[in-house]
Every structure is written in C-alpha cells, then in structure tokens.
Q: What sequence folds into this?
C-alpha cells in the first residue's frame, strides 16, 4: 500500500518573519549597521589600531583627523586631550554601549514581564497596587529618576545600568499586563484551565508565548534608549568614569574643546546617533514583522 505525501507551500516561520521584516528597507539598513557595530565590539582588540588607554605624549595631544591640516596618518581620527587615539577609543566604546544596552534591556524586560504577568493574570488588589507603583515611577521623567537613583547608589557604570533598568521596567509591566488581559479569557486559555493546567503553567506556558511579539519590539527600543541614557549619564559624570572608553564619557571629557577641536565631540556624538538610529530602525522592522494587522495590510 503506497502512501501519498502532500506538499504544502506554507513558508517556515523564519522565512515569513524575514519576508515582512525585509519589506521595511530602513530596518534592513539598521540591521546591517547593527551587525557592523556588533562585529566591531567583538573584534575591537583586533580592529583597533592602538591601545585605547595609551597616551602618546604632549606633542600628540588633540591631533586633528588625518584629512585635516596637521593630521597624522597613525591616528586616522586624531587624538584626544591627553594624546589617546580617538578611533581606538570609539571602537572600544562599542563594547560598553552594546553591553549597557543588553544588560539594561534584559534586566528591565525580565523583571517587567514577570510583574506584568502577575498583575494581568491575578488582577484584584495585586493588580491595583502594582500598577499604582508603576504609575508613580512613570510620573517622574526617566533621566531625572535615573540621576536620583545614581546619586543614591553612587556614580559608576554598574549603578547607572541598575538605575536605567528601574526606569524602563514600568513600560514592560504595562505592556505585559495589557497583553495578558487580552489573552487570559480566550478559548485556548479556558480550555487549558478546564484540562487541569495550573496557574503557573497557564501564565508561562500558555499565555506568555502569545504575548512575545510586542515585548520583543519593546526590548529592542529599550536597548537603544538605554545606550542613549547611559551616554547622557556619562556626559553628566554619573555613568562610566574616566578613563573608560564610553561614548558619553568621551563627550564629557571633550566638551571644553567644542569650539577649538570640534572633532573630539563630533565623532562620539555620531557614534551614539548612528547606533541608536540603527536599533530604532530595526525595532520598526520587528513591529512590522510581528504585528498581524500590518501583515494583513
């Protein structure tokens, strides 16, 4: 007895995701830039032409880029105020910026999703208390709240990441809660409950996987915002401390030379701008790929 195999033309989940993601050309460009920055961060010790913390003497201080008058071919983007290679410091700065974004986005997403899952599923007084606390946190501007928390915890990169993660957490809580409330009374959840599934299984195995689309988009946007806020804290002297090659700290160290040596401020600022813009463009592409309404349109 022979069996007949039926072939379907349904694309795989990955192929479908890439189809909708790649329709957004800006998202593809953002992905390419992000991959480039990621590779720079991974291979910084190989790509960087000099030690980022090595000063090359008073005669090498504030050299202009190689294409400007007085430039040196050994230092393509020039040197900073104490004679360190600017290009090498920018390349190593990708490590700090991506590390900050990854840690902050992961911590705030994990804590926010857990709290929002409990609030949306349990409801009642638990939901009310959690959401009023989140409203209080959201009532304070995020950068101001981060500054207050860093002032309490002490200046430094670790404390800055903790402070930024706390300020981003309410966004994940509210988004998760709304998604859970939309899913908890649907037929597949009721069927699982009737079949004897416990609360933890319903929350983490049944409901949460169907809420991941908007959460992934929010995580991507938080990643870019964390880089921006960490740079702002570094610029204000409350984030990474010298001689760390972090873009915000580099801006703070060079602000007094803004008029006389503008490249010292321009290049770190461009790195922040391009990286944050690339990640935001990726976030738009992820939204297009995960939003079923956009797919139908």
A:
């Amino acid at each position: 007895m022979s069996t007949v195999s039926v072939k379907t033309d349904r694309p795989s989940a990955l192929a479908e995701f890439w189809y909708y993601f790649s329709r957004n050309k800006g998202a593809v460009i953002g992905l390419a830039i992000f991959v480039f920055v990621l590779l720079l961060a991974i291979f910084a010790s190989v790509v960087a032409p000099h030690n980022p913390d090595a000063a090359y003497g008073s005669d090498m201080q504030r050299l202009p880029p190689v294409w400007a008058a007085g430039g040196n071919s050994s230092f393509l983007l020039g040197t900073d105020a104490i004679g360190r290679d600017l290009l090498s410091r920018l390349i190593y700065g990708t490590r700090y910026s991506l590390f900050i974004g990854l840690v902050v986005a992961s911590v705030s997403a994990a804590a926010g999703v857990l709290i929002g899952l409990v609030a949306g599923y349990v409801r009642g007084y638990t939901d009310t208390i959690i959401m009023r606390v989140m409203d209080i946190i959201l009532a304070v501007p995020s950068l101001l709240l981060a500054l207050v928390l860093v002032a309490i915890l002490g200046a430094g990169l670790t404390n800055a990441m903790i402070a930024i993660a706390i300020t981003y957490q309410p966004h994940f809580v509210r988004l998760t809660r709304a998604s859970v409330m939309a899913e908890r009374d649907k037929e597949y959840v009721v069927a699982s409950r009737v079949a004897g599934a416990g609360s933890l299984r319903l929350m983490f195995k049944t409901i949460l996987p169907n809420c991941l689309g908007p959460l992934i988009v929010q995580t991507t946007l938080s990643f870019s915002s964390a880089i921006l806020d960490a740079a702002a804290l570094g610029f204000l002297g409350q984030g990474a401390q010298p001689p760390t090659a972090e873009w915000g700290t580099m801006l703070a160290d060079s602000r007094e030379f803004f008029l006389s040596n503008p490249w010292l401020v321009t290049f770190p600022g461009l790195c922040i701008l391009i990286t944050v813009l690339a990640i935001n463009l990726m976030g738009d592409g992820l939204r297009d790929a995960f939003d079923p309404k956009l797919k139908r349109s």
Summary: The first helix runs from residue 13 to 22. The radius of gyration is 24 Å.
